[in-house]
Amino acid sequence: MVSHSQQPDNALTARRPASVTSRSTNTRRHRASRSHSGGTSYRLQNEFPNFAQTGDVEIIINAEGQEKRYMLHRLILAQCSGFFEAGTSEDWSRAQAEGATSTAGPLHGSGLAKIGEEDEYGGKMGRPALAVTPQDRHRWRYELDWGNKDDEIPMLVQKPIPSTLFGGDHTYRPPAVPSKPPPPTNTFFRSFTAMQSAANIPHQAPDNDLIRDYDNLFRIFYNYPPHLDPLNIAESYIQCKSLLQLADMYDALEVVGPRIDHHLLQFQSRLWKQIAKYPPSYLKLGYLARSKVIFAEALIHVVGQWPSGSSQLRNHVPDTVLDLIEDKYEELTEKKLKSEGKLFRLTLNTPRGDRVTPLNGYVDWLALSLFRQWLVENTSPPPPLPPKTPNANQPSPRTQQQ
Q1: Which of 12, 237, 288, 341 is least surrounded by CB atoms within 10 angstroms?
Q2: Alpha-carbon gap, residue 328 to 306, rounded angstroms
């Protein structure tokens, strides 16, 4: 009987190279979050002002060679602005689509036509050539139109989105890919601190005034603080005025006004001095900003100086504001006349209860007469200027002709 050596089941087998073993046993899977540079892979920006993944309204602002692009949400724009609510409504979008289809043909903007196939019953079955992707959802595009004349006010105009043969569009340009990130460090807290410091970098305000106003408008829509001067109240007034005029164009004063009111009220005493110095200007600004405090303070000074500031308010504020000013002016004039009448009828009495006269109290009567004279001189309007008389030294026109 020949005995054979039996190897145990757990005996080690001959090891193959690592590359052969991994290739035969495991399948290499691609990780979407890995990067050749050692950090995470680059993803499209999905925050203000470019919501590349969820935005559906593209806005392009061109001014003096500068360009600013936004990819925003139709829902937020429609809630904050009546202009965008009407421009992105179903009726308006349907009319725009019908106009584009009639001018460009049936294949414009629709991608490939449906491919007919026979089903198992022999009938025709249509299915789209490409699957619907998030990029295929309805989008809107607005560009700043400067008009044909120099005196026209530039305004956003809805433009059709150019489409390719496959239904895609070339409208949105994703932001530039950032530079290669630094290699990962072994210290987690150090990298986390660096990431926080990079995220807290403040957004720089644009140099162009028009681009700055549009940027502030959209920042307010997304509940971001606008870029307004926090130190110089005169410069801040100019910025707030231009921003309110832009918001008035796009029917967004209800959203922009409270932000302007909050910003100006931070100046406190400096604001009250500016209102007392320029009441008509701040009355118009307070009306547009829906600011009760600024409007009431400016209204007090305007009514007290009326009608000297009427030329600055005519054709600049609604007739209801002018009617309010005139009504307050009439009420103030009536109260002033009543107060002046009571002061003029003020008198002094003797210890017996009689009115003073030159006979029973000469000194008291003289003081009362001087007070009434002073009151009349300071409450009566100034007398009209006398007409100019020709000077005797100047020659007459007849003499000059001779």
Answers
A1: 12
A2: 10
Instruction: Render pLDDT for 252-276 as a digit per residue (tens, 0 to 9).
Output: 999 999 999 999 999 999 999 999 9
HSE (CB half, 13 Å, CA atoms) of 148? 0
Amino acid at 99: G
SS3 content of the chain, % helix, strand, coil (to 5): 45, 10, 45
Q: State pLDDT tens for residues 340-368.
A: 899 988 888 888 888 899 888 899 999 99
Those residues whose C-beta lies under 8 Å from the C-beta of residue 184, and which sit 6 or more positions away, are 38, 39, 191
Distance CA 136, CA 169 (A): 9
Please report where in the chains the tokens 């002709």 appear, as a residue: 401
Residues 49-95: tens digit of each pLDDT? 899 889 999 999 998 888 999 999 999 999 999 999 998 887 766 66
Sequence-distant (6+) residues with CB within 8 A of 301 are 275, 276, 279
Q: Do the Cβ atoms of 280 and 302 come closer than 8 Å?
A: yes
Nearest Cα to Cα of residue 215 among 86, 56, 67: 67
CA 300 to CA 316: how far, in whole Å? 18
* Helix (H/G/I), strand (E/B), else coil: 97: helix
Give the DSSP letter of residue 176: P
Q: How does pLDDT run across 148-206, given as a tens digit for each residue?
A: 777 788 999 998 876 654 455 554 455 444 454 555 555 544 554 544 444 444 455 56
SS3 at position 85: helix
Give pTM, 2 decimals.
0.65
Instruction: Please say whether the beta carbons of 257 and 291 come within 8 A.
Output: yes
pLDDT(327) > 90: yes
Residue 65: per-residue pLDDT: 86
How far, in Å, CA of 59 to CA of 84, rounded?
11
Give the separation between CA 103 and CA 257, rounded to whole angstroms: 41
Q: Which amino acid is at 100?
A: A
Q: Taking a C-beta distance cutoff of 8 angstroms, is the pair 316, 284 a contact?
A: yes
